[in-house]
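Exercise 7 asks you to align residues with tokens for two separate proteins.
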Amino acid sequence: MRKLQLTIPEPCHEDWNKMTPVQKGRFCSSCEKNVFDFTRSTDLQIIEMYNKNNSICGRFLPSQLDRELFYPKKKKSVWLAAVFFGMITFFNTKVSAQEKPKTEQTETPHIIVGKVAYNLENQDEEIAISGIVSDASGPLPGVNVIVKGTTNGTQTGFDGLYNIKAKKGDILIFSFMGMKVIERTISISRIINVKMEDSPVMLGGAVIKSLR
């Protein structure tokens, strides 16, 4: 899956409030173009819009720009997986039935008695992180939570709660329409609560580019 990023090479400094309202945005008389309002659009909706027309101007939140766009992976066909699994199972059963049983000798294992020593937690092992994301009004549903530099992400539920697996030292990115992007580094605590704050908006002709 390609990693995509939204950016505005040349931001527009026209006043949004002075533009003429049109469907899905406003008309800018200076550049004589419609400016679409994407401040309430999801990453997937933005990608779909730019696939249809990659030369449109838009109104965006800073939290939507200059970061990896988060969009769900396409699920593989469950039906094909079931058929494939069935074929493998049938083949293995047939081969096993044709093989003659083998006599194996087993040795009695030595039993070691003593105190149990607990190893320190592996730094590379994924751990379950959870928490509640809120704003000034309370719990905030639909917040994107993603591990920085990966496609591992999730969204908060109706109660603002999220759950995600990550490693110690990883950075969680919290983003939501109209809110500032917040980053939190995973350390000892497995509970990370976040309070979102309002963010300003940006205008201009945005482009979507691939991240290598």
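Second protein for Exercise 7:
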Amino acid sequence: MSKKRYPRFFGFLALFCMLLLSGCDGVPLLDPKGQVGIEQRNLIIIATLLMLIVVIPVILMTLIFAWKYRASNKAAKYTPDWSHSTKIEIAVWGVPMLLLVFLGYITYVSTHELDPYRPLESDVKPVTIQAISVDWKWVFIYPDYGIATVNKIVFPAKTPINFQVTSDSVMNSFFIPGLGGQIYAMAGMHTKLHLIANENHEFNGISANYSGAGFTGMKFKAIATSQADFDAWVSEVKNSPKKLGKDEYAELIKPSERNPVELFSSVTPNLFQIVIDKYEGMNPGKKHVAGEKEVAGNADAEKGKNSAAGAEE
């Protein structure tokens, strides 16, 4: 390639990169609408920038050395007996070690602050939503309202949402990228996830763990709205002719793909715990405490609180 063609080549390369980047708009992980998601995004950016402190100089030096010491460059200094430089040793060992210490500190602090089991601090009463993973759909129960849905949840913005998650099938993963981290759904287990939406928005929820043939269609809508609209939606669901009894649930959990949204005006009491007990071998007549079999989170998670309600980026 002649020297005259270099500017044209790099111009086309820059244009090509711009075209690729134009398709990166609206990535939920980098444009979250919830405080937990914002803090996780900031952590990703900080960790990436810290690692670039090492990566960028290495790439630049590789290109510079390859150019400077090419065979055709007779002006390059030739030092075959060179073997040591204290300054270089300090740089190549000291900088990465400092970065590792800093990254370790950030990781330790953020692991506790962003523990999914840690309740969010708020003056507003949380909304509890129980999520059950089945083949291949999500069943959601609002225990405080006595209603249930399939593949859709609605909740008020700026209100903590306490998700309780389990599975009535294989292991799965509950994930709303625009709100925050994911949590696994496992049969016989009860996991927790605390999230909050900072504004009214419609989110896409997904299954983030392969679970069979219908995995790709195992999606749901998560809508953050005003308190008034949420109350109106609850009233709408309570007027639905469908009821989620034991027989209806047994039919619902049969494998099916790309299921439409369903609304149930009532639900079998303690259905979430009944599903968990199916896989624990418990005596059906034995008195038990809901939530006994929880997957352990941070030991301090229930004691600490994560300041989040109504926070802005």
